[in-house]
Amino acid sequence: MNSRSYINRKWVNLLQTLLIIAVMSGILALLGWLVAGKTGVVWAFFTGIAVLIISSGLSSWSVVLRMYNASPLRPEQVPVLYRDLSVISRKAGLRNIPVLFYIPSQAVNAFSMGNRKSPVIGVTKGLLRTLNLRELRAVLAHEISHIRNNDIKIMSIADVVSQMTALLALGGQLLLIINLPLILMEGYHISWWIIALLILAPGISTVMQMALSRTREFDADMDAAMLTKDPIGLAQALSKLEYSAPGWLTGILLPRKKADLPSILRTHPKTEQRIDRLISLSQDLEYEDNLEDGPDRLFLPASIPGVKPRGRKGIFNIRFF
Length: 321
Fold this sequence. Notes:
By secondary structure, the protein is mostly helical. It has one domain (3-320). 63% of the residues lie in helices and 6% in strands. The protein contains 11 helices and 5 strands, in the order H-H-E-H-E-E-E-H-H-H-H-H-H-H-H-E. A 5-stranded mixed β-sheet has the order 1-2-4-3-5, with helices on both faces. A hairpin with a 6-residue loop joins strand 3 and strand 4 (120-124). Helix 1 (3-57) packs across helix 6, helix 5 (133-148) crosses helix 8 and helix 6 (151-178) runs antiparallel to helix 8 (192-228). The longest helix is centred in the N-terminal third of the chain and has 55 residues, at 3-57. The radius of gyration is 23 Å and the shape is elongated. The two termini are 23 Å apart.
C-alpha cells in the first residue's frame, strides 16, 4: 500500500469514528432535552465528562488482570517477544514499551489496556502455544496500534455515552408511566416519535457503539500491517483464532460450529472480511522478515503458572484481538 492510499484509508476511518460518536452524542442530547429540556442536555454533558475523568484516574486494568489471574512476563522469560515488542513500539512512536502479562487460558486471544504512558498487553497461554513467532509479532503490532490510536479511550467515551443514553431513556419511560393518568385525564397528545425514541434509543446507541468498535479493529489491522510490513502474518493469526478448537462438548455436538451473528451486532468485523482486507494489503507491501535465525515457535519457560483464569472478558474497556 502506498502512502497516499494509507492516508486515505486513515481519513475514512477517522471520519467514520467521528460520525459515529457525533450520532451517539446527538441521540444523548436529544434524550436529555426531551426529559428535562436544556437542563437535561447540560446535565448529560457534565455528568459524562465527570464519569470520564473519574474512570481515567482509576487503574481498572490492575483489577482486570487480577480477575484473569494474570502474571507479568519478564524480558528474560520471553526475550524474543520483548525484542519484537521493542522494535514495533519504536516504529509506532510509543515512548514506553507495553508490559506483557500472561493469562493462563487455553483461549487463543490477546488484549490491550492502559494508555500510551502505561500500556499493557495481555496474551493467553493458548495464543502463545498456537501461533508461531511471525503471527505473534503481527498480533503484538495489532495491540500496539490500539494503544497508539487511543482506541481504549475512544471506546470508553462511547461506553459512557451509551450508558448515559440508557439511563436517560429509562428515566423518560418512568416519567411517562408516572404521568400517564394525568396525561389521559387532561387529554394531552404525545407524539409517537417521542415514545419510539425513548424505547429505541438505547438499542440504537449500542448498535452504533458496536459499529465504532468494528471501525477501530479495521484501523488497527491496517496499522499493524504497516508496522510489520506483514499483513499475511496477521491474516494467519486471525485464521487460527477463528478456527481454534472449541470446548469438548461443543466439539462433539456442534463440530466447528460458531455463532454467526449479523454484522450489525458484532463488536469485531467478520474474520473473513479482516483477512480479505489484509490479503489485499499484502499485494502492495513487501514482507520484511526481521526475526533472528532460530526456532520458528516460542518455547514457554516452565516457571509460568498454568492455573485457570477467574474472570470473563467484556467487563471493562479493553481491546480484544
